[in-house]
Design a protein that fits this description.
Layout: H1 5-23, H2 39-43, E1 54-69, E2 74-81, E3 84-91, H3 92-95, H4 97-104, E4 111-120, E5 126-137, H5 153-158, H6 160-166, H7 168-190, E6 194-195, E7 201-202, E8 214-217, E9 222-226, H8 231-239, E10 244-252, E11 264-273, H9 277-295, E12 305-308, H10 309-316, H11 328-337, H12 348-360, E13 368-374, E14 390-398, E15 401-408, H13 413-428, H14 439-445, E16 452-458, H15 459-467
Parallel strand pairs: 3-5, 6-10, 12-13
Antiparallel strand pairs: 1-2, 1-4, 2-3, 4-5, 7-9, 8-9, 10-11, 11-16, 13-14, 14-15, 15-16
Helix pairs in contact: 6-7, 7-9, 10-12
Length: about 475
């Protein structure tokens, strides 16, 4: 859209100010400003001051000019950094009239650093009595309106820097996200896990049922894939004897956009030798309870509910028993008997997954585990020790959204080979999400993998749950947009 004349004039005025600064010998973009204290840290020791109290405590703060009031012999200005806001009090008899005039002439959005002493105004606001200041970066564009903030969703998401600059709520979400990731690392480190990094570019993609992004590796002259999961490489590390490993990293799935899906997303996966899904479930509950305590959320404080997958469908779809209808034709017929819409799914497993997504998942508001999955839905999970045709797997849901997936890991190389072959048949029949046969993974399993439990937790979705956000794009700094 063409800029309005008023906007064009504002930009021109800021440009003229920039040139005037340079002509006056002022560097508008200096190299550094060392010794800065965060505003919240500067204020914290002095909250107990009485109105009118002054101190000799010197501070150096820096941030973006957010507001200004007054002129002539004195002025109040508001400085904002990521930790909060600080009022500045500048007087001509302290810094000189020329310096005060230059300070007041700064534009909102300019970045500046300030030296001074802490005091509390007669109105009770902690402030800095300015005795020196420096322009740190000239802002050539006006910031979003300081009263209404940035409200246009398209602009907020495409220009997250402006969203963070003007909306305290957005900044709080991403500061909380950082605390969540830090708390996860601390928890797993304390539990004896080691953090590792596995390839993002992979010659064979696997570890999930999803379509990959495809690229060309020029140096090798062959097709590579952006990973859809870290699972198979992490389990090869279990084979190698690392025993407890985790990775927090980006995965990429070539799928659509939705309130719960972004093609680039962050996953936590961990794998633990000598454990099964029950051990993983207990540790996952403790982890998320601990993280909730760190960020002040009570969302996951109580023990999670549990349901079997087949039981969850039967309870919500007129007694439909998916395990009694183990072929695509049989399950479709049972759905027709109930007057249900029959989606175009390529196989029985995909149709079961549809039933969970359509009829079960939206109803799981409180934290709930679905467990005992069919083997056809779980190509890397160990067969159930008590029930034929099932595997030892659970997925956890809350607010109608799946946020983690875990199982006792399949460590029988012959069984895993047969699962891969089945997935290859599904792919040949038209299932675009079926993973390819991974010969290197079979080679690793043939050296022996101990009993192992593993889990994947969607960091983005977990942040959504812990911060009360309804769409994934609100917890991803730069989400994919059309």
């Amino acid at each position: 859209m063409e800029a309005s004349e008023s906007t064009s004039e504002l930009l021109a005025i800021r440009r003229r100010k920039l040139e005037a600064l340079r002509e006056a010998g002022v560097e508008p973009f200096p190299h550094a400003y060392p010794g800065v204290t965060a505003i919240a840290e500067a204020k914290a020791p002095h909250e107990g001051l009485e109105p009118g109290d002054e101190t000799e405590t010197r501070v150096r703060v820096a941030g973006r000019l957010h507001a200004r009031r007054g002129q002539g012999k004195a002025a109040f200005l508001d400085l904002v950094d990521r930790s909060g806001r600080m009022q500045l009090h500048a007087r001509a008899d302290v810094i000189g009239k020329e310096s005060l005039d230059a300070l007041v002439a700064l534009d909102l959005g300019d970045l500046l650093g300030v030296d001074g002493t802490i005091f509390k105004t007669r109105r009770g606001e902690l402030s800095v009595k300015v005795d020196g200041w420096e322009l740190l970066a000239k802002s050539l564009r006006p910031p979003p309106d300081k009263h209404s903030g940035l409200t246009d969703t398209e602009t907020r998401l495409r220009h997250r820097e402006l969203d963070l600059m003007s909306n305290d709520e957005t900044r709080a979400v991403f500061l909380t996200r950082a605390k969540i990731v830090t708390a996860i690392r601390r928890f797993l480190d304390d539990e004896g896990f080691i953090e590792v990094e596995t390839p993002v570019l992979q010659p064979i993609y696997g570890g999930a049922l999803a379509r990959p992004f495809v690229t060309h590796f020029n140096a090798l002259d062959r097709t590579f894939y952006m990973r859809i999961a870290t699972e198979l490489y992490l389990k090869r590390l279990i084979v190698g004897g690392l025993e407890r490993v985790y990775e927090i990293g980006k995965d990429f799935r070539n799928e659509g956009l939705s309130p719960k899906h972004n093609p680039e997303f962050t996953m936590l996966e961990w794998y633990e030798a000598y454990a099964d899904w029950e051990v993983v479930a207990e540790r996952a509950e403790r982890l998320i309870r601990t993280v909730g305590e760190v960020v002040g959320s009570e969302r996951f404080m109580r023990k999670w509910e549990r349901e079997t997958l087949a039981g969850s469908i039967a309870a919500r779809v007129d007694g439909l028993d998916v395990l009694a209808n183990r072929t695509l034709d049989s399950l479709q017929a049972a759905m027709r008997e109930r007057g249900m819409e029959i989606p175009d799914e390529p196989n029985w497993a995909s149709l079961v997954d549809y039933l969970v997504s359509k009829h079960v998942e939206p109803t799981l508001i409180e934290p709930t585990m679905l467990h005992d999955y069919p083997v056809e839905l779980s190509p890397f999970a160990k067969r159930h020790r008590a029930y034929d045709g099932l595997v030892e797997r659970f997925e956890a849901f809350a607010e109608g959204m799946e946020f983690c997936n875990a199982f006792s890991e399949l460590n029988d190389p012959d069984d895993q080979r047969a699962r891969f072959e089945e997935q290859v048949r599904h792919a040949a029949a038209g299932d675009e999400n079926a993973p390819p046969f991974d010969h290197d993974y079979i080679y690793a399993l043939e050296h022996g993998m101990p009993p192992t439990g593993g889990i994947g937790i969607g960091i983005d979705r977990l942040v959504m749950l812990l911060t009360g956000q309804r769409t994934i794009r609100e917890v991803v700094l730069f989400p994919a947009l059309k």
